[in-house]
Amino acid sequence: MRQAEFDGKGGCIRWTETPGAQPARVYVHGLGAMSAVYHAHIAARPELAGRRSLFVDLPGHGLSDRPHHFGYTLEEHADALACALDAAEVTGAELIAHSMGGSVAVVLARRRPDLVSRLVLTEANLDAHPPLTAGSGGIASYGEDEFAAHGHARVLRNVGAVWASTVRLADPRALHRSAVALRRGSAPVMRTILEDLTIERIYLQGERSGPLDGEDTLREAGVRVVTVPGAGHNVMFDNPEAFAAAVAGRL
């Protein structure tokens, strides 16, 4: 395990990695998740073997620190991720990012273009104020103190076992601030940033999740949109073969 300070006060972002060829692949998890849990089984597949792979836990999540003075905005998450990549001496990485992690990856690509050469986004949040059915909506519906006192436990009881297994490891205040920030979005908003980028961009949408809003506009901007059959929000679990093919550039 490796770590890098991200807040100027001793808070550290942490990651595990496997050695291999460059450019590195950096896996970034979604809200309340952990990177290795969602992506290590993908990176280990034969078609992806041999590439340096980093599994980074964003602040407040997994193995990383969760300082209560930190804001957990998308920009702050992106800057923390940049600290990890700088410490790891990574440049021009391929970012494979899920849900909120995709939003963070898009913001990072704008703020630090030297760090990102390719984006593979899985059902990334592209707009502010996503539907209330999104996981962030239930969390953000609480006040922060209420969520820390009672809401976190209620969410754990009401979400599926897979997500609950990592949500319970996230700091409640960090989780709430991240959810609120995700619903607020970045400035400019993530969709606009993604459309303006010139690097290779792939967007994976699970078939069971329904049509992707604004798909035609994304395609016009050069984003390759792929609907993954038999998959919902967690494409990497529902159809790992297709997910790995997308990461490998074969889909």
Automatic annotation (TrEMBL):
Domain AB hydrolase-1: start-end pairs: 26-131
Gene Ontology terms for molecular function: hydrolase activity
Keyword entries, A-Z: Hydrolase
Residues in coiled coil: none
Pfam families in alphabetical order: Abhydrolase_1
InterPro entries: AB_hydrolase_1, AB_hydrolase_fold, Carboxylesterase_BioH
Top-rank taxon: Bacteria
Protein name: Alpha/beta fold hydrolase
Source organism: Streptomyces thermocoprophilus
